[in-house]
Amino acid sequence: MTIETKAKPIAPDALILEIATRHFFVETLETRNSDQLDFHDVAVWAMRAALEDAFETGRRAGAAAETQP
Predict the structure, then answer these.
(1) Helix (H, G, I), strand (E, B), or coil: what is residue 2?
(2) pLDDT value for 3
(3) Strand (E) positions, 1-69?
(4) CB of 50 within 8 A of CB of 2?
């Protein structure tokens, strides 16, 4: 599951939050000074899926940048 960046590039912070929300169901990546809100138990397979998603998104963005004049 990756994000298409052809139409309009997404700002890096927004893209990171979108991936985190999709894979870890977090509302924000801002520090809220609450252990309950700032720390999350994450399964290794969910972490792997999020990293693969981020890698694939970066790969596609790089490929798109190479083809632009």
Answers:
(1) coil
(2) 52
(3) none
(4) no
- The reported pTM is 0.73
Binning pLDDT at 50, 70 and 90, where does residue 68 land?
confident
Q: Where are the domains of the chain?
A: 40-69
Contacts of 59 (CB under 8 A, 6+ apart): none
Burial class (CB in 10 A: 0-12, 13-18, 19+), 57: buried
Residue 6: pLDDT band (50, 70, 90) is low
Whether 1 contacts 60, CB under 8 Å: no
> What does DSSP assign to residue 5?
-
Tell me which DSSP letter residue 7 carries.
Answer: S
